[in-house]
Amino acid sequence: MQTTQSSHSEIVLYIREEIIMKVLILGFSNNIVNEDSFIPNKKGLTLSCIEICENKINELGHEYEYICMNKKNINKCYACGPRGWGKCLETHTCIQKDDFNEIYNQMHKYDAYIFVTPVYFHEMSESAKTFFDRLKRCDSFNDNSEIKDKRMMCIACAGGSGSGTEETLNSFDTLNYFLKTNMVGRIPVTKFNFNKQKELIKETINKLTS
What we know:
This protein is of the alpha/beta class. Helices cover 33% and strands 23% of the residues.
């Protein structure tokens, strides 16, 4: 609360209301450490980035939920129906009875999203591709989308050689285009630049939640 004096000797009070944001973090790693890759604090690179996000969000006083997507049962898109489109085109739900619809139907509760994936074969992980393929199918042509215009940041984590982060982030650019979200940051992380990128992740979360 800030107090100031007006020209008429009246005391005017300005109260700045703190806005608590809710952030959804989706991680696409099974958290099994690869001994040949980069292991800060005996954790994998992807999980280490997720923990940086969690700690920064807590520091800023916001709320978050983290979901390890590799522990969810999400099948590939069947491209069912005429011309490869099922009911998802009109009803914006998927006919498959797995964990996808539950997560998709909860995404409207959050103000911003953080997507963190390892890089495999110069692409996002298999679990990430599976989820985002179906998300695009259900939401890209949804005129009443509750994901549209929300903020997003994406982190591509490449252990080993460190190759493939830009290709993975390009895929996130495509996702951002079709979902009509607001990309706040796209961050490449390797074992070579991890210490530097930690600070960039924190700075980007400041923008994501401001």
